[in-house]
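Continuing the series of single-chain predictions for the mutant panel. This is the parent chain; the variants come on the following pages.
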Amino acid sequence: MRSTCYRNRIGSVIVKEDQIIATGYIGAPRKTKDCFERRNCLRTTLGMPHGQRYEICRSVHSEQNAIINAARGAASTLGSKIYIWGEDAATGKLIDAFPCFICKRMIINAGIDSAIIMTKNGTKIFKIDDWIKDWQKKEIIDDRHQCGNGREIVTEKHLKNR
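Parent structure:
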């Protein structure tokens, strides 16, 4: 619920040996202005659809923040699990909280073993080794569980109704 994004509220928790080692939520980098402070979503203003062009965003994703927060606290993520939950900020409905390609790459490189992801239809558990094997065989763009699939572009009307 602490996310500072007009589009989504997503949070991540990294757990190792039954202990929370880090958390993260969608938010602007420390000491910078978020979308609420600026009163607009840059991606919406530019007509960017969900799941594309994340470099055009003020925020750091929840998965990225959780991994960064683990590093800031000197906690090793090797052999850990990441739990990811999300909802549409405009409607409050659960979304398929699949990580974007950038976050998937960071999860792989952080040595996280599995991702437990909330979807509209319940929880999905992914072994990170399976992502690696899939990407060894085919391009990442062929990934079946892509962030933003089937989501409409958020408009200024959605934001005014928030």
